[in-house]
Design goal:
Elements lengths: L6 E10 L3 E6 L4 E5 L15 E6 L9 E8 L3 E4 L4 H11 L11 E8 L3 E8 L4 E9 L1 E3 L2 E4 L5 H15 L3 E8 L6 E4 L5 H12 L3 E10 L2 E7 L7
Parallel strand pairs: 9-12, 11-13, 12-14
Antiparallel strand pairs: 1-2, 1-4, 2-3, 4-5, 5-6, 7-8, 8-9, 10-11, 14-15
């Protein structure tokens, strides 16, 4: 996928609440931008960090720009937009597919589950339904991609939904997309949310498939790159 709007360089100053950040533009003006990520953004919030924005002109918006990319060590970039992984997965599933998944007859996004649950995708493989939940990963330490960067009861509920679907005879996948290129493997962040780490291992033992993919990021373009190995906390 590719951001159609021109990218605007800026410098990150500080974050206010979850969805606002103060930045300094190239001409020295300061202003507030939308942060399309409710997570802690560990490693992406250092004051003075080089970032890239897109201009937003939709009526009713409180901010005129959205933060899309952050510079990371080694002259690379990370995309902080949590909607990007879902778009990439949808493109892949409607095209050549993802490793480990069969050809699909159809794909539906934002699937409601009783009682009140929701997952990102359900796909019809002809002989079975395949349910997928996608998670964005932007935190990397010493080459290890880590998720979550904050306690996530919602993430645990998604894993519980996936396990319930496996018990019903469906196929279920938890997919992690690492939105940067300096990771060599993935691991749940037990130091942040040990309950999530244990639930992920439990889901895997009970038949939920896990896949980790890395993005290739060359702003403004983002593509799926290679799969990454993962370690679980049992």
């Amino acid at each position: 996928m590719r951001f159609a709007s021109p990218l605007i360089p800026a410098v990150f100053l500080r974050r206010e609440k979850r969805f606002l950040a103060e930045v300094e533009l190239a001409d020295g003006r300061r202003g507030w931008v939308h942060v399309p990520n409710s997570g802690a953004l560990t490693g992406c919030l250092s004051p003075g960090l080089e970032i890239l924005l897109t201009r937003e002109a939709r009526p009713g918006r409180k901010t005129g720009h959205t933060w899309r990319f952050s510079r990371i060590p080694g002259d690379g970039w990370t995309c902080i937009d949590t909607l990007v992984p879902n778009r990439l997965v949808a493109q892949a599933l409607r095209g050549a597919g993802l490793p480990g998944l069969p050809p699909l007859l159809s794909l539906k996004a934002e699937v409601a589950l009783p009682p009140g649950g929701r997952l990102d995708f359900v796909a019809d493989a002809g002989d079975r339904l395949i349910f997928l939940e996608i998670k964005s990963v932007t935190w990397v330490e010493d080459g290890v991609a880590l998720f979550p960067d904050g306690v996530t009861s919602r993430g645990r509920r998604h894993l519980e939904h996936l396990q319930a679907l496996v018990r019903q005879g469906h196929e279920a996948w938890q997919v992690f997309l690492v939105q940067r290129q300096d990771a060599t493997r993935f691991r749940p962040a037990v130091q942040v949310d040990s309950d999530y780490a244990r639930e992920l291992a439990r889901a895997y033992q009970r038949g939920v498939n896990i896949a980790v993919f890395q993005e290739k990021i060359t702003p403004p373009e983002i593509t799926l790159a290679e799969s990454l190995p993962f370690d679980l906390i049992f």
